[in-house]
Amino acid sequence: MAKDIDTRCRHTRSPRLIVKMFNIPDPDEGEFEFQVNDGVNYAKKQTFHIKARPLVLELANNRPLEVYPGILQPVITEHLLAKTNDDNQTQPIVHTIITQPRNGRLVWVTSNGTQIEANSFTQRDVDVGSIAYHFTSTLSKWVEQDSFEFEVSVAHQLPNFLKKRNMGCCRRDTRNSIAC
């Protein structure tokens, strides 16, 4: 029967490729043996070991952003940085906004300066400076604060935290000028 599977796989996939499915009893560790041959000559059997690590997502930076009223302030990695324990991370890390800011808005800033409201964005968007906060409210007190709640996720990892992000403050000094 194994010969039938090998033959069928050879014909359906590729003349040089044999595909076999197998189950590993322990999902975190496993191994399989293989042997390379050219149909006449056979190499020594080899064992391929597999050890899976969980993908850990962490919020490395979640720092306040100081803004002036009416000013578009970029959100940079010093303010907001999520990363994983995978040095070769290829899947996008996504920030999904759960609760929008009350006194302003989060926007993508395009290369021509156009602002598009952001309901979600990637860490890459933050890394390249495409995300900004625009304080649109009027100051009714000496200090105003704003925040938004967001969820951070990446493929193969369940969203593991919801964070309230304080966007910073705006203050008026005694001369009624703006200082942050």
Architecture overview:
- This protein is mainly beta and 180 residues long.
- The chain is 9% helix and 41% strand.
- The chain folds into two domains: 2-51, no CATH class; 57-179, Immunoglobulin-like.
- A hairpin with an 8-residue loop joins strand 11 and strand 12.
- The longest helix has 11 residues, at 2-12.
- It starts with a helix and ends with a strand.
Short description:
The protein is mainly beta and 180 residues long. It is 9% helix and 41% strand.
Supply the number of helical segments: 2
Question: What is the terminal-to-terminal distance?
Answer: 76 Å
**Class derived from helix and strand content:** mainly beta
In total, the number of strands is 13
| Assigned CATH architecture of the largest domain | Sandwich
Low-confidence stretches: 1-13, 166-180
Q: Could you tell me the radius of gyration in angstroms?
A: 26 Å
Mean pLDDT: 76
How much helicity do the residues have?
under 10%
Strands across the major sheet, in which order? 9-6-11-12-13
Provide the β-strand percentage band.
35-45%
Task: Using the coordinates above, name the CATH class of the largest domain.
Answer: Mainly Beta
Give helix and strand order, one letter per element, not per position.
Answer: HEEEEEEEEEHEEEE
Could you say what the CATH topology of the largest domain is called?
Answer: Immunoglobulin-like
What is the total domain count? 2
